[in-house]
Amino acid sequence: MAEGLIAGLVVFTLASFVGFEVINKVPPTLHTPLMSGSNAISGIAVLGAILISGQGNVTVTSILGTIAIALATINVVGGFLVTDRMLQMFKKKEVKA
User: Fold this and answer.
1) Based on the number of CB atoms within 10 Å of its own CB, is 49 exposed (0-12), middle (13-18) or buried (19 or more)?
2) Is 97's pLDDT higher than 70?
3) CA dist 42 to 5, 9, 71, 72, 77, Å?
4) Residue 52: what are its φ and ψ, rounded to 5°?
5) Rounded to an integer, what distance in angstroms lies between the CA atom of residue 76 and that of residue 81?
6) Nearest Cα residue to 38 out of 4, 78, 2
7) How deeply is 25 buried, as exposed, middle or buried, from its count of CB atoms within 10 A (0-12, 13-18, 19+)?
8) Cβ partners under 8 Å of residue 63, min gap 6
């Protein structure tokens, strides 16, 4: 069990560093459209976390699944709000007579 935990922590650490480097290389003009795409990925994470945490027994996995549901839902909602705000900037404003 300890070997699996260590392997998971190594993968998490490496993924964190790679993710940080990739995000830093994205120009600001592409950041918001890419965030819209990442909302779909977070939606998949929500579905996966619901499947894991909805198994009926309370274990560490179900607790982590519940936390993942909350965090991924916040990410999805926040991403859609930011994307909507960006799209509002491109709408033509009506001229009042």
Assistant:
1) buried
2) no
3) 23, 21, 9, 6, 10
4) -70, -45
5) 9
6) 78
7) exposed
8) 53
pLDDT by residue (tens digit) across 44-78? 878 877 887 777 777 787 787 788 888 888 888 88
The contacts of residue 72 (CB under 8 Å, 6+ apart) are: 42, 43, 45, 46, 49
Q: Which of 30, 39, 86 is nearest to 22 (CA)?
A: 30
Between the alpha carbon of residue 7 and those of residues 11, 21, 25, 49, 59, the distances in Å are 6, 21, 27, 21, 20
Give the global pTM.
0.55
